[in-house]
Please model this.
Amino acid sequence: MFDTDSEAEISIVLGKYPAERKASAVMPLLYIAQRQMGRQTGSAWVPLPAMDEIARRLEMAAIRVYEVASFYTMYNTRPVGRYHLQVCTTTPCWLRGSDDVVSACQKATGISQFGQTSEDGLFTLTEVECLGACANAPILQVDDDSTKIWMAPAPKN
Ligand code: FES
Model:
């Protein structure tokens, strides 16, 4: 199920934890699975069989893996577009114009509501909580790569 690249990453991650604490690797393994899906299908998400495999490898109940994957917005539990547009609408970003960012994304993609994917399958628009970059608000994160964070130009006074 995991490809060679993922297996190499998993080995490195598991090497960081004592064997009796390997359940602590659940978050990085979910990320590894999500990135592999992105490489293989163009849609970075974590399907149920991948969560089951992670549970098996970490010797933990599958429900505990499902709980982690469904709690954090950084894990996609259903297919997303090639580009996952995540707009922060928490107060600092909202005060700095996140509504305009949402409107621009909707206009560019044809998406009318959060959670939808564009008809061409290229974009999914998601509303997220603080991305930890408030000083540069408003923030739009593309995919799970912090190098693709987009910051609006400073407003003119
Ligand atoms: S409030 Fe948007 S990044 Fe923190």
Notes: The chain has two domains: 4-71, 83-151. Residues 4-71 form a domain with the Arc Repressor Mutant, subunit A fold (CATH 1.10.10.1590).
